[in-house]
Predict the structure.
Amino acid sequence: MLDINFIKENLEKCKAAAINKNRVVEWDKLLAIDETWRRLTKSVDDLRAKRNEIAKKQTEEAKVEGRQLKESLKGLEEEQRSVEAELQTILMTVPNVPDTSVPIGKDSSGNVEVRRWGKEPVFDFGIKDHIELAKKLDLMDFERGAKVGGFRAYFLKNEAVLLEFGILQYALRKLVSKGYTPLMAPSLVKEFTLFGNGQFPWGRDEVYHLEKDDLYLAGTAEVPVTSYYSDEILSEMDLPKKFVAFSPCFRREAGSYGKDTKGAYRLHQFNKIEQLIISTNEMSNSLTLLEELLHNSEEILQDLKLPYRVMSMCTGDMGEPQVKKYDIETWMPSRGAYGETMSDSLMGDFQARRVKLRYRTKDGKTQYCHTLNNTAVASPRILIPLLENYQQKDGSIRVPDVLVPFVGKEVISR
RNA sequence: GGAGGAUUAGCCAAGUGGUUUACGGCGACAGUCUCGAAAACUGUUCUCCCGAAAGGGAGGCGCAGGUUCGAAUCCUGCAUCCUCCGCCA
């Protein structure tokens, strides 16, 4: 959410941002409602001032006068409340303004490649995709997964389990050694966290809702961790706060029924290690931190010796809350293409404002924090490039050096 | 799931219907003093609205409603924490 005063002072910028992000905002309505709200607020405040004055007198006449005043105040207050709710609703739909360094574009075709790392492997044999590899080596069972848990459900089996735990553990340890505070975050969360994150009101269909308990299943640890300090005022001295959080993640994938229907790419449930930073309200510093998060994730892929490329997301392909966003795409041989494995975002104070996450500056003022996050590793998706890039002619799979201690062997074969 | 207790500002904490304009303390920030610091003293330290400013006004006591001329205080619902009982990996 952006501040209404900021929007009014930077109306053209905000309008351009919404257009570039392909979002529709009812600007005229927003401004009109704001006017109405201000007018109502003034009237309500004036009437309350009068009420307070009358109440002080404590005479019989004052009581009669107070009773009359109460009626008109009640109506006005009700009106103010509903107008305020309407204002909030529209305000919630205003997307954040991208940084000037973000490429402008309609959709994913407008994304800009920043760099590539690693060499795409050349195979002198017919390669298998991860589904076939996993089947032959008894590493994943999608058929029985579907039988038990429905579409997009799966079992990991044998070394795949060790690989998944290993890679999660590896990423976790790396980030901890860089000074990030480890967290295990709840996957079951209250509704306000999803609004706070900027997932709602837009992405309701993407999120599982447990009606009986009115809880939601978070699609990422970003949701609980962004609200970790909600409603609190941190000290500038303690910023930036850096976290590395593990959580099981749940996504309905409602908008992508036809997409990636096979294999481990798009799943309803997966495990993720997420990096998060809560920082001060200084854009240049936050942009530097965004690069730090990016660098951390690149390092993990480099350790795994997986070829990847870094994409700078264009305005049309980034979400509402983002100021700037990079995707890291890892080489997936069966696709003959790079596929998204990590996503690095800077939200400015967009989320912080929504969850009331603030800090006190050195000179005693309160400010909204900046929030950032990036995937460290998400699995099983990361197993796709891992299995496919490391496959060998005889159908076995070499284990990346850094994961050998976790898997307990150098080659997976049957 | 049941019974009881609690929730006040960054932290601790007083206050049980009307000089409460939320007592007081700690911390933080600014100033005085100082070569500099500590101490001491003075001031500031939640949010919103109007205003160029000076200033004025409103709201804030876990959250949301309600009663009353007037609510931190009374009522209803909800959340969270603590103690005990039950169930449980």
Chain A has a mean pLDDT of 94.
